[in-house]
Amino acid sequence: MSQLLTPDPTILGGIIAFEGLPPEVLAWLLEAGEVRHYAPGEVVVEPDSPADRLLAVLTGAMQYYAVTSASHTPVFRVEAGRITGVLPYSRLQVFRGQGIAAGETTLYQLPRSQFSALEHISPELVQRLVGIMNDRARDEVRAQERDDKLRALGKLSAGLSHELNNPAAAISRAAAALSESLLVKPELLQHMLAACPPPDAMAALVALAVLPAEAPAPLSALQASDREEVLAEWLEDQGCPDGYDLASSLLDAGLTLDTLAPVAARLPAEARIPCLTWLAGHLASLRLARDIREASQRISTLVSDVKTYSHMDRAGGREKLVVTAGLDSTLNIFAHELRQKNVRLLREYAPELPLIMGQAGSLNQVWTNLIDNALDALPEKGGELTVRVTKQGDFLCVSVQDNGAGITPDVLAHMFEPFYTTKPAGEGTGQGLDIARRIVQEHGGRLEATSQPGRTEFVAWLPVNG
């Protein structure tokens, strides 16, 4: 339990904010406040308790913790000579965290009720305390902005890892299968040469060893099964022991019994098995090579999207931007979450949109916040996200619309206020929309929101000649 002390009149001299104050002001502070001693680990401030006093650390230190049902996380530490707690003109009503004495600690405490009297006793000290409050607020906003960016980056990184893993795994599988396919090619070549097929028959066979420019028209499951069975039986009649394996590769390349039978008829009987096996393996190798190329291109596209999104390859100043490029890169990075939630995505971009002057990285942060909030609001089934860009007079209008439950009028009225959030503790800081609004305003525009059940829309108005 803390102990009330009778302090030495000079004890307040160690507080940085009190340095150089007249003796009569220090004497008034001691008379209006109190000095208490706390044992190591003793609680000074409880979470959600009234923010009713200024605290100055005379000796020892005080450690602040963010407290939730699941965690007790250190936030910051106030050393001897520093001031914390509530300050004059602060709107803080309750302490959000827990303050604990770090070792033997002595604190000076001035009740909030004495702040009005302090204004008359020492306007200079009030001015110093307001400066401390402003610095503290600025540092807190910066920390919250950094946390919001890290939270968004973490979410995007998780989705991006899935997006990169899929083509990387496809490349690995295709490369392994291609290696196996190439291992048997020398033996097949030896068997083909031993059978001495006529040149015209080989020319007809080689003419089939090309993948079609377009995939064959899709068949129903029953049609595909019937064709595979017919072709497999014919292949086995030619002496192929693995007719079904070969049939699948040949049909995937658009070859049918009507195409293959005339070519096989021109081959010597002993050449048909190695020639047809070579043809199926060659077509399979071409498909595997195509799969590797497409997966590699997907990875290149994702890397390009990340560069566009993060603006890594350009300077940080403003330049002429294609707004839809930033939107597309942001949406592509959200691709995993969009698929995971089975969201129907609609991109409605007006033709011949003008460029705007802007900072790409900052605007991409806006799109991230708006899209992320929209995804959180979507229903479990039937979710629809519409991203629309139009030109309205001298402004480019970027709209992010969802078909979620909507935002109630009382919540909508506070949506852009800093630290206002409806999300559970630990899932949101209430900074995202405030940051987005300020970024749009810094670009000379405005951010607006409208909502009704089944339709919520955020619109960023950006000047074309900003």
UniProtKB/TrEMBL annotation:
Keywords attached to this entry: Kinase, Transferase
Keyword Transcription applies: no
Alphabetized SUPFAM superfamilies for the sequence: ATPase domain of HSP90 chaperone/DNA topoisomerase II/histidine kinase, cAMP-binding domain-like, Homodimeric domain of signal transducing histidine kinase
Domain Cyclic nucleotide-binding as annotated: residue spans: 17-136
Domain Histidine kinase stretches: 292-466
SMART domains: cNMP (SM00100), HATPase_c (SM00387)
Enzyme class: transferase
The enzyme's E.C. designation: 2.7.13.3
Reactions that this protein is recorded to catalyse: ATP + protein L-histidine = ADP + protein N-phospho-L-histidine
GO MF term set: kinase activity
Stored Gene3D superfamilies: 1.10.287.130, Histidine kinase-like ATPase, C-terminal domain, Jelly Rolls
Protein name according to UniProt: histidine kinase
